[in-house]
Structures
1.
Amino acid sequence: MKSLLIRCYPARWRDRYGDEFEAILDERPLGPFDVADILLAAIDAHLHLRGIDAASKRTRGFMMSLRIGGSAAILGGVLFLGGFVASSIDHPDEGASAWAAFLLAGTAALLLALIGLSSFQARRHPRLIWTAFAVPAIGTAVSCVGIVGMALVGDRPLVGDFSPWEIWIFGVFGTVLGSTLFAIATYQTRALSRRAAALLATGSIVLVGVMALGMTGIVTAIVGEAGVITTLLLLAGLVTFSTGWIALGWNALRLERPAAAAA
């Protein structure tokens, strides 16, 4: 991947700075935010052909990742909670698709938050961070397919025996599962608040459990005699999950420099 990233830069730039930049990239693993940062810098190099600073300005990059990630985490936590609750209360009719789109916006914001807040943690847990990014990224794409399907075909099967609503739920499941992995990495690195990371991990685990049971048929509905417990668990998991993301976002915005970056 590193050689491919370097080749994104102009030939003149590579001839002059390629070896030095390659040495910088070899110093540590790259996270999702680093890749995005390098690609944006490559575009800037094509436009302006600046020096090595155009490729990577780490101090400013860390602060930018904190601002973007923190703001997206707060926005995503609010949108995800509101969209999920509203789409669950609403029946899968025309209104449900609108609420599902509202939830998708929250899902996309959480994906952006994960990219930004993982930028300084990938050095210590590169595989975990990349997995935590890949799973919700795939989940977001699946959610898009489900939402488009709900708008076009309604409750009819879209892929095999799966309805658009079921496909959408699979996508949401990916977002929650990725958040669990991210919370574990954050708790281990101590880069952000461990309390907020523990809160996010707790909510994610509860949601993963409830959704997994529902998708395997053990819990087939959120109503009925056993539905009260399921509803309470789902609501508690949602509130804890969203609160964890909001707390991490708030903590990131208040930090001047993450602990892992300073280390």
2.
Amino acid sequence: MSLPGTASGACLCGAVRFTASFPSLFCAHCHCSMCRRNHGAGYVTWFAVPPAQLVIESGREELARYPSSAHGSRSFCRRCGSSLFCESSQHPERIDIALGAMLEPIDREPQLHMHFDSRVAWVAVADDLPRLGGKTGLEPIPGAKGSVSGEGG
């Protein structure tokens, strides 16, 4: 059990264990192709905290880092392959943590869908969260549910 204001997480095999302190910066479902391929899923739910609010409790030597783009890297357990963290030089103020790796609830529910215009057709999304996309993945999509421009499809 974690201290108040924190939640613990781990990889599948338990070699890498960590604690995140709150408040978190955001929680969002990402539909970009890199996240889909990295996790083998239709989309991935991330939350972010400042780097100082993430403590690797054990297994630091089992963490491997993959440079997934010119500005970003993804960290995973070299034993079991669990994808855990994503970091970007474009956003050094945060580290993204895969919500699915958490063993306890965090301080917020998912708030939006990002890169929604990159989503796969075989994933049905039935919530009313804002759906963002465009070049940054965070721009309103005209006509999409939750967008500034309307309540469309």
